[in-house]
Amino acid sequence: MKFIILAALVAVAAAADYAPKYEAPKYEAPKYEAQYEAPKYEAPKYEAPKYEAKYEEVTYAPQPYSFGYDVQDKESYNDFEHNEKSDYNVVTGSYRVALPDGRTQIVTYKADAYGYTADVKYEGEAKYPESNMDKTLV
């Protein structure tokens, strides 16, 4: 058995010496006729446009406003409402969102020179669907 392995190794080594050797072909650089030379172009020269900065800051007096909207789309399960009003100094408002767990989140807020304060409340009780894990543990 050792003789067969030794003979195989000698045969592989001897075959490596007799493998044909190829050299990469040599190519001459292509010669182009004068009619095929690429035309030479000069880069166009552009001057940057000159602008005069004329800026006047416009200030507007604070304006009171009031808005509200309500969305109830049963197909997309969107149900929310937002109301806000402002006088010259204070912004007050509220929004309501139907949450996926069945509760409704109601946020009432006030923003004035002293900062932003919000009161968050929830209506209803959270309901979660029964999972398959509950059934397998029984």
Helical region count? Answer: 2
Computed Rg? 41 Å
Silhouette = flat
Mean pLDDT: 83
Keywords: Cuticle, Signal
Protein name: Cuticle protein
Signal peptide: 1-15
Organism: Daphnia pulex (Water flea)
Written description of the protein model:
It is a single chain. With 138 residues, this protein is an alpha+beta fold. The chain has a domain at 65-123. It is built from 2 helices and 5 strands; from the N terminus they run H-E-E-E-E-E-H. The chain has a 5-stranded antiparallel sheet with strand order 1-2-3-4-5, with no helix packed on it. A hairpin with a 2-residue loop joins strand 4 and strand 5 (115-123). The longest helix has 16 residues, at 2-17. The radius of gyration is 41 Å and the shape is flat. 0% of the residues are buried. The mean pLDDT is 83. One of its GO terms (molecular function) is structural constituent of cuticle. This is Cuticle protein. It comes from Daphnia pulex (Water flea). One of its GO terms (cellular component) is extracellular matrix. Keywords: Cuticle, Signal.
What order do the helices and strands come in, and which of them pair?
Blueprint: H1 2-17, E1 65-73, E2 78-86, E3 91-98, E4 104-112, E5 115-123, H2 132-137
Antiparallel strand pairs: 1-2, 2-3, 3-4, 4-5
